[in-house]
Design a protein that fits this description.
12% strand; 4 strands
């Protein structure tokens, strides 16, 4: 096995190990960054929903109070306002969603489906002081989705005016939604969860594209380094050694008409100087023998 082959085998093994480690670390890092990007998007949507709710309570509902006695206006309900706003957003971004999933809602469209009910029960069964947010992933027909959820807890006793018993609720609301939904709520009870769902497909695709570009760049660097190192090996080591080997072969056959190697400061040049000295010594010894 030649010196070049041995060198290339070692070099390939080192680069293969380096690429494997780099691939593992960079893939995990890029995937985590993609998930963090999705979580940031979900957090922004959640804060936007909370802002819409607050705006509805402080700016919209007071102006509609005179009409609510005769006609119940869903637009005055914070949850309705936030949901409708995001339904408008979904016309352009259909994979993004916001829902105030409730176990026993006034509006049937807010009723929690199976996986949302599990999220609500997670908050109901835990300590809200420490379990005030939950995130996770789930598969959907449109791809992998990440959801961010926060509990809906009845902290304001005024909310019970519409949700304690049907007799206490506005007649206009009963007329619109009936007496069977959205009642029996209690103060400090967690009745639902705000759930934001954000698709992971685009961030994950971007992460995978970045990973492929990184690995392709690393492979290109390896190829260039491999070529440069082989060229250096040829010009700086193999070619001088091959010349010395050929010269030694001629000298061993009695041919001393071999030019001497030049001087230098590296190890190969030092070897050449030693070879020159050895050749001269051998040549002198042979002349003494011939006499």
């Amino acid at each position: 096995m030649g010196l070049r082959l041995k060198f290339n085998i070692v070099l390939t093994l080192v680069f293969a190990a380096g690429m494997a480690v780099s691939a593992l670390v960079s893939y995990e890092l890029l995937q985590n960054n993609a998930k963090q990007e999705v979580l940031r998007n979900a957090g922004l949507m959640m804060e936007a929903a909370l802002s819409i709710r607050g705006y509805t309570v402080s700016q919209i509902k007071p102006h509609l109070e005179p009409q609510l006695a005769e006609t119940f206006l869903p637009q005055s309900v914070p949850a309705f306002a936030a949901t409708e706003t995001f339904n408008t957003l979904r016309k352009k971004y259909p994979d993004f969603s916001y829902k105030e999933a409730t176990l026993n809602p006034t509006n049937p469209r807010d009723r929690a489906v199976e996986w949302e009910a599990d999220v609500v029960n997670y908050f109901r069964n835990g300590n809200l002081a420490t379990m005030n947010e939950l995130s996770g992933e789930r598969d959907t027909p449109s791809g992998r989705m990440l959801y961010l959820a926060r509990p809906i807890t009845i902290k304001d006793p005024a909310c019970l005016a519409c949700h304690s018993v049907p007799s206490a609720a506005p007649a206009s609301m009963i007329k619109l939604y009936g007496e069977n939904n959205g009642f029996g709520w209690k103060h400090m009870e967690t009745v639902g969860a705000q759930v934001v769902s954000v698709p992971m497909s685009l961030p994950i695709k971007n992460a995978n594209d970045a990973f492929r570009v990184f690995m392709a760049s690393l492979a290109a660097i390896f190829v260039v380094t491999f070529i440069v190192l082989n060229a250096m090996l040829s010009f700086m080591i193999l070619r001088p050694i091959t010349r010395m080997s050929a010269a030694a072969d001629k000298i061993s056959q009695g041919d001393f008409n071999v030019p001497e190697f030049g001087k230098g400061k590296d190890e190969i040049s030092t070897l050449g100087v030693s070879f020159n000295r050895m050749r001269r010594s051998l040549q002198k010894a042979l002349k003494l023998i011939e006499k």
